[in-house]
């Protein structure tokens, strides 16, 4: 496919992409469910329904699935409000050891930020079995760039957005935040149990590590294309977020459990690197062993993350409660 033809597919609805490319494109069967929740503490559990709600009104958020690249996993669900001023954007990035997971498991969290009035992008990316690093970081940046280019289409403000990542997705969010000397419009990065130091994960996952730490070590090796640090130091250096702190990076917030298999000290390493270049970072530690989405469900965690994001993006008018329109 030529460059012009491929560019024409970006941000086209999946059905149009399939017709133009002649290739199957994942349908939005795993897209956000239409019925909103009113829970104050959003749950990251998946919601399988994708049929339009009969109660949908013109005031509900619009929800569509778009491609930002040609690979089957380079897709994203965009939730946006057509009424009111342009809204800041929250990008949600799922976890799964870099080798699994799916945006559908972030549906409830996506909905919760839509209910706060933001434009929300819930994205998939190529997994380590599809492509080695840095494909995953590249995909997140590509999705961000695509939405920013088409911000008017989504009634969004391209100069006010944050990244919210879970576990491996938190690694990707922080890696994008520390890529180069800052990203245009990026106001903050949040990581929930992010393995920001794959080199530490490799060391912790030795024969003396826990079963989960050994699994994370193997996952990091797979992300690096099957290569260990001694043989591929440049790849591992590229994956190591604390190595890339710079003065233009956005403020960051990470949250860990005190006894989880991705220890808080990884984020403390990143905090120290960011502080040396004048970038603020907060590392919160909760008691227990919960990791990623279960940690986000712990009392007060979701609320503290929402408050931090609101401080970075500003408050927006809360839309009328109604069902999203497919």
Describe it for me?
The chain has about 325 residues and is an alpha/beta fold. It contains eleven helices and eight strands. It has an eight-stranded mixed sheet, sandwiched between helices. Strand 3, helix 3 and strand 4 (about 120-125) form a beta-alpha-beta unit. Helix 6 packs across helix 7 (about 210-225). The chain is globular, with a radius of gyration of 19 Å. The protein starts with a helix and ends in a 13-residue tail after the last helix. The relative contact order is 0.16. Residues about 1-10 and about 10-60 have low confidence and may be disordered.
Are there runs of 5+ residues with pLDDT below 50, and where?
1-9, 12-58
**In whole angstroms, how far apart are the ends?**
29 Å
Number of strands: 8
Describe the strand arrangement of the main beta sheet, using strand numbers: 1-2-4-3-5-6-7-8
């Amino acid at each position: 496919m030529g460059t012009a033809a491929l560019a024409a597919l970006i941000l086209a609805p999946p059905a149009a992409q399939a017709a133009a490319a002649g290739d199957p494109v994942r349908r939005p069967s795993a897209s956000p469910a239409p019925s909103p929740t009113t829970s104050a503490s959003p749950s990251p559990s998946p919601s399988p329904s994708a049929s339009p709600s009969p109660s949908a009104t013109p005031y509900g958020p619009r929800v569509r699935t778009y491609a930002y690249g040609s690979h089957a996993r380079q897709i994203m669900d965009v939730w946006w409000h057509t009424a009111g001023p342009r809204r800041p954007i929250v990008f949600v990035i799922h976890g799964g050891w870099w080798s699994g997971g799916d945006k559908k498991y972030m549906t409830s969290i996506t909905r919760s930020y839509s209910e706060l009035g933001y434009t929300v992008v819930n994205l998939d990316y190529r997994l380590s079995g599809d492509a080695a690093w840095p494909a995953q970081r590249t995909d997140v940046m590509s999705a961000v760039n695509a939405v920013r280019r088409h911000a008017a289409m989504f009634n969004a403000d391209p100069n006010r957005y944050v990244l919210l990542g879970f576990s491996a997705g938190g690694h990707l969010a922080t890696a994008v935040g520390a890529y180069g000397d800052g990203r245009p419009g990026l106001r903050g990065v949040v990581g929930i149990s992010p393995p920001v130091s794959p080199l530490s994960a490799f060391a912790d996952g030795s024969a003396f590590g826990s079963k989960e730490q050994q699994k994370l070590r193997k996952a990091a090796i797979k992300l690096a294309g099957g290569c260990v640090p001694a043989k591929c130091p440049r790849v591992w250096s590229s994956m190591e977020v604390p190595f890339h702190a710079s003065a233009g990076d956005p403020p960051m917030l990470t949250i860990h459990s005190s006894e989880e298999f991705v220890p808080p000290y990884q984020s403390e390493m990143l905090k120290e690197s960011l502080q040396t270049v004048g970038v603020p970072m907060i590392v919160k530690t909760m008691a227990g062993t919960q990791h990623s989405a279960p940690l986000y469900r712990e009392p007060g965690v979701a609320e503290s993350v929402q408050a931090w994001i609101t401080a970075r993006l500003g408050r927006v008018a809360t839309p009328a409660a109604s069902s999203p329109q497919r």
